[in-house]
Amino acid sequence: MLVVGDSYAVHLPRRCSPHLAVAAAGVRGGCVNDDGFRRSAIRAAVRARPRVVTLVAGGNDLARRDCRVQRWLANLQELTLGLLAAGVVRVYVLPIPPRTGFPSSGVSARIFRRRRWVANKLLRRLFRQPPVLLLHFVPPPDFLASDGVHPSAAGWRTLESVLQEAMDASSGI
């Protein structure tokens, strides 16, 4: 499995157990609404030739003042289609995780929570049949680390179990 995304994907290889056989292609601050990010993700899939990709992205987009959820969703769909065209057989999408930390140029916590709620609702409607599926992800109360953006130790364990379930479910692909 290749995990593509923002800083979550950057940190994932060293935060999860070595037995979790994933490769990661992450971009710190990566945003689905950035053309370069989408192209980079597709290039990573072309190089790695995985059968399964998990997308961990969207939190940075929703934290931007200029984010429009519908545009973000269209760009996410474009990215998933690009991954499938690159030979990926199954794409899993992680729902947008919670966040309590924001840059001064970002949106308020209230606006982010609202956008996250809308985005995750749209993801549940859109990605419920193969080849693109939304992962089941329920963050525990202690999911976030002190920075309010990245997972705590408990959060990484939760993500690891979600990825392991996805790998188990896609073992026959």
TrEMBL record:
It comes from the Eukaryota. Transmembrane segments: none annotated. Residues 6-155 form the SGNH hydrolase-type esterase domain. It holds the Pfam family Lipase_GDSL_2. CDD domains: SGNH_hydrolase. This is SGNH hydrolase-type esterase domain-containing protein.
